[in-house]
Amino acid sequence: MLRIGIVAGALLLAASNCAVAETSVERGAYLVNTIMACGNCHSPRDADGRLIPDKAFSGGLTFNTPPFVATAPNITQDFETGIGSWTDAEIKRALVEGLRPDHGHLAGVPLAAIMPANFYKALLPEDLDAVVAYLRSVKAIRNQVPDPAYKAPVRRDAYPDADAGFSKADLAGPVKRGAYLVTIGHCMECHSAWSRGVSDFRGGLGGGGRLFPPRDGSPEGTPPTIVPNITAHPTAGIGGWTDAEIIRAVTHGVARDGRPLKPPMAYDYYASLKNSDLADIVAYLRTVPALP
Ligand code: HEC
Ligand code: HEC
């Protein structure tokens, strides 16, 4: 018995040492495949809406909106159809400024605003490095997505927390750590008040109301999904929910009353968030000013 206890203790210690020694690629894999959910847009799905694991990141959803039609491109390491020929600096520029490289296909053309660079600009330098390090490890898949068409100039709405930025020192407290995760997870892009294509991240932060059309393959007549209010309002928002109820909604797509929640929120990605990160996200959401 005692020996089993020691072995278990040694394993625990090894596991915690592993966490300390997380490599940049591991950190990037965690960010990309949980909170940043890149594959929710960039990975293809089958007819039932399930991700196709061996095709991850090879090109995904097509967004047909008034200002543009754009397909989330292949971001695997394929040289011709992916981003294998891009330098690290070029990948970083696409992520945090939404700009393509000055060479190759569509040279210099800004990326449509659906690519959330206005949120990703908040990434700490080491996290940006980690995302790029992980993308370099993604196996090349050949797949050319259709070219985008732009019907209006690209405009990204400024997100105050991303513009203010975060420092390592800021991330000492749970609320700020949660704000960082909610920023790089672009949660408020969907969950804030939205009108005529413009998000209100100041007066309408977290207030909900934005409409999403049903996904391809939904039965005819499916109504659009209304994004809920996630401010601290006790009845209109999630102020009256327990921490466990909020975490269940985020990670398992289950509403407070047990109803399944609809896409496009990336529940299947958030399911792998660490408990400590989920606790920080909840701590931040509790501070979002209540809106009716
Ligand atoms: C909400 C959907 C969405 C999410 C989330 C998203 N992207 Fe994108 N991304 C797009 C779309 C759409 C484009 C193409 C826009 C265009 O063609 O104008 C794009 C473009 C890109 C490009 C430029 C590729 C090229 O060939 O031009 C890169 C690189 C990229 N995304 C990487 C990422 C990474 C890494 C993440 C996660 C950290 C991510 N994206 C998250 C939708 C998304
Ligand atoms: C791409 C858009 C999108 C993003 C990004 C997004 N959500 Fe959601 N969220 C939704 C939709 C849509 C629903 C559920 C709609 C339904 O079925 O009623 C939802 C539901 C929720 C709920 C349940 C609220 C309720 O009243 O049922 C919570 C809590 C929530 N989201 C928190 C978050 C957090 C935290 C993040 C970031 C980590 C996030 N969301 C990112 C679209 C989004």
TrEMBL record:
InterPro entries the UniProt entry points to: Cyt_c-like_dom, Cyt_c-like_dom_sf, Cytochrome_c-type_DH
Domain of life, source organism: Bacteria
GO terms for MF: electron transfer activity; heme binding; metal ion binding
Gene3D superfamilies, sorted: Cytochrome c-like domain (1.10.760.10)
Pfam families linked: Cytochrom_C
Domain Cytochrome c, first and last residues per copy: 23-139, 173-289
Signal sequence extent: 1-21
Keyword Signal: yes
SUPFAM superfamilies, per database record: Cytochrome c
Keywords, in A-Z order: Heme, Iron, Metal-binding, Signal
Keyword match Signal: yes
Protein name: Cytochrome c
Phylogenetic placement of the source organism: Bacteria, Pseudomonadati, Pseudomonadota, Alphaproteobacteria, Hyphomicrobiales
